[in-house]
């Protein structure tokens, strides 16, 4: 699933730049709110569902695992990503945003892998 993350996130950043125009601090906050309010919850749910399926969980086991892990993972997401994304959207040009996110994602993906593979 990690090989899908780059193209999906990169495409999302292009969409955000088309939806919310400008480079002010207010624009950066608006992009972060949309990113963390819409994209992050969906992406996290998909990640947990795909990981559970790839680990051979039945539909019922996978749903139970998602219910167990989703809220905690989303709350942890909200501790890490909003400040990263505000800085990313304000200071970093679009063509370099994915690289910034991938640096932070090294730690985030380790956490998600641990969370998703705990039984």
Automatic annotation (TrEMBL):
GO terms for biological process: regulation of mitochondrial DNA metabolic process. Pfam families: Mpv17_PMP22 (PF04117). The chain crosses the membrane at residues 38-57. This is Mitochondrial inner membrane protein Mpv17. It comes from Buteo japonicus. The keyword Glycoprotein does not apply. It is a multi-pass membrane protein. It is found in: Membrane. Belongs to the peroxisomal membrane protein PXMP2/4 family. Keywords: Membrane, Transmembrane, Transmembrane helix. GO terms for cellular component: membrane; mitochondrion. One of its GO terms (molecular function) is channel activity.
